[in-house]
Specification:
This is ABC-type quaternary amine transporter. Keywords: ATP-binding, Nucleotide-binding, Transport. The protein is α/β, with parallel strands linked by helices. The chain has a domain at about 245-315: CBS domain Like (Alpha-Beta Complex), CATH 3.90.1280. The chain has 14 helices and 14 strands. The strands form three sheets. It has a six-stranded mixed sheet with strand order 6-7-8-3-9-10, with helices on both faces. Strands 2-1-4-5 form a four-stranded antiparallel sheet, with helices on one face. A four-stranded mixed sheet has the order 11-14-13-12. Strand 7 (about 155-160), helix 8 (about 170-185) and strand 8 (about 190-195) form a beta-alpha-beta unit. The two termini are about 40 Å apart. Mean pLDDT is about 85; it is low at about 240.
Length: about 325
């Protein structure tokens, strides 16, 4: 669906992106992750032509991005920034429907769509539709920013560090919201973050960057279990990254389920150590882990294999 083909970007003779290539499949939640200055946002902006590659090309549906009509490309692409960027002079209903207005959609249909999206994120339209942005909390503003990006039903949404300014509780709530909405809509999302835990939690595919160089592209499981470079390994196991229970489960240790089999033992765990203690004290080969984030079916052997791989990667 989307292809970055040997793209590079130079500013004043200083390279910031160096010969980067990767593919994004339709329906992917594709995460660009790396430290500050690694080129994540530069790559993101190449899709909607806020940045133009010095070399190489970005393709969308087999056609070069530079050959698309710029206005139509941007109208058909959702965009969510670190702050919600809501228009302060418009109420929420009109903020959400702004792209629909630009597309010439009738006012009644615009407002119907805005109310539908407010309900989708548990914001009662009767209570919120006429409110102004300054009447909302930061988390509420970002919810509106997210559904505004969905209003025109775009095939692609760009999200640039959308949750980095929020507190951990609200951040996790909005992560869950995006995951739920993306699952429902099957929208392709390119998501920028500097947080490896967030990358593991959100991404179906992850691209790791350092100093404009692509280090690795893979699933969360591949990134954890088979780091391609020393940097990728250290990015996970250094710099204060902690393997919490949820980080491990999000990285592929267990399979999340909506309802587990009644014949499997259940352990409620908040820490990785509690899961390990359960494995040590029980003989069950498969069991259900109940966490604050839901239920996971876990294979005991997978737990031991994970610990072995973790120690090997630390070596």
């Amino acid at each position: 669906m989307i292809r970055y083909d040997h793209v590079a970007k130079t500013y004043s003779s200083v390279p910031v992106i160096r010969d980067v290539s990767f593919d994004i499949d339709e329906g992917d939640l594709f995460v660009l992750v790396g430290p500050s200055g690694s080129g994540k946002t530069t790559l993101l902006k190449m899709f909607n032509r806020l940045t133009v590659p010095t070399e190489g090309n970005v393709y969308y549906q087999g056609k070069k991005i530079k050959d698309y009509d710029l206005q139509q490309l941007r109208l058909q692409t959702g965009y969510v920034l670190q702050d919600s960027s809501l228009f302060p002079n418009l109420n929420l209903q009109d903020n959400i429907a702004i792209q629909l207005e630009q597309q010439g959609i009738a006012k009644t249909k615009r407002h119907q769509r805005a109310c539908e999206l407010l309900r989708a994120v548990d914001m009662d339209p009767e209570k919120y539709a006429q409110r102004m942005p300054n009447e909302l909390s930061g988390g509420e503003q970002q919810r509106v920013g997210i559904i505004r990006a969905l209003a025109a039903k775009p095939a692609v949404i760009l999200m640039d560090e959308p949750f980095s300014a929020l507190d951990p509780v609200v951040r996790r709530q909005l992560q869950d919201l995006v995951l739920r909405l993306q699952k429902q809509t099957k929208t392709t999302i390119i998501f920028v973050t500097h947080d490896m835990h967030e990358a593991l939690r959100m991404g179906t595919k992850i691209a790791v960057l350092k100093d404009g160089v692509l280090q690795q592209v893979g699933t969360p499981q591949e990134i954890i279990n088979q780091p391609a470079t020393k940097f990728v390994k250290e990015f996970f196991y250094g710099h204060g990254f902690q393997f919490s229970l949820n980080a491990v489960l999000d990285g592929g240790l267990g399979k999340k389920v909506s309802a587990a089999s009644d014949d499997l033992p259940v352990v409620t765990a908040k820490k990785l150590e509690e899961l390990l203690a359960f494995c040590r004290d029980r003989q069950a080969q498969r069991f259900v882990v109940q966490t604050d984030d839901g239920q996971y079916i876990v294979n005991q052997q997978d737990v031991w294999n994970y610990l072995i791989r973790r120690e090997e990667n630390r070596a």
